[in-house]
Amino acid sequence: MDLRPRFTEALKASMLAKDAARTSTIRMILAKLKDTDIAARKAPTDPGVPDEQIAAMLRGMAKSRREAVELYRQGNRPELAEKEEAEIAVIESFLPAQMDEAATAAAVDAAIAEAGAASIKDMGKVMAVLRARHAAEMDMAKAGPLVKAKLGG
């Protein structure tokens, strides 16, 4: 997936295209990534956080903007909501495609089988398997309730 070079290339392209909104959003992503790298750094020579962590950071940025969109709509500020939605589109363009419901259900079934889960007490094991296998392309907030339902919780 190697996201860091994609950010740099996208920034160059948006600057050449004079796309101010996209350039601004990519710069925001790069600033957040720098903060994340610094927070996770143990030694000055650390290469930075891995792509899985970058993807999680991007999902967090998109989630906070979705919450802002809701608040702007409630506050009757459609122009601000549109700005946030444009930022979400840029942020999500760097994320791998999310699994659909059928693929998520199949992955949950496979994880339950792999973890040997028999009851709701095994939910943690199943979620760990899902995180290890599908962290980038699966919304864990949606997977949790599905795992719980399948384990009879």
Task: Describe the protein.
- This protein is an all-alpha fold and 153 residues long.
- It is built from 7 helices and no strands.
- Helix 2 (20-40) packs across helix 3 (51-74), helix 5 (101-115) crosses helix 6 (123-134) and helix 6 packs antiparallel against helix 7.
- The longest helix is centred in the middle third of the chain and has 24 residues, at 51-74.
- The chain is globular, with a radius of gyration of 18 Å.
- The two termini are 35 Å apart.
- It comes from Plastoroseomonas hellenica.
- This is GatB/YqeY domain-containing protein.
List its traits:
153 residues, mainly alpha, globular
Give a summary of the structure in a few sentences.
With about 150 residues, the protein is mainly α. It has helices at about 5-15, 20-40, 50-75, 80-90, 100-115, 125-135, 140-150.
* DSSP helix fraction: over 70%
Q: SSE order in H/E notation?
A: HHHHHHH
Q: What is the C-alpha radius of gyration, as a whole number of Å?
A: 18 Å
- Quaternary: single chain
Mean pLDDT: 88
**SS summary, helix count:** 7
Question: Spans with pLDDT under 50 lasting ≥5 residues?
Answer: none
Shape: globular
Global structural class: mainly alpha
Number of strand segments: 0
Cα-to-Cα separation, first versus last residue: 35 Å
Number of domains: 2
Which topology of the largest domain does CATH recognise? Hypothetical Protein Yqey, Chain: A, domain1
The top level CATH class name of the largest domain: Mainly Alpha
Pfam family, one: YqeY
Organism: Plastoroseomonas hellenica
Protein name: GatB/YqeY domain-containing protein
InterPro entries: Asn/Gln_tRNA_amidoTrase-B-like (IPR003789), GatB_Yqey_C_2 (IPR023168), YqeY/Aim41 (IPR019004), YqeY/Aim41_N (IPR042184)
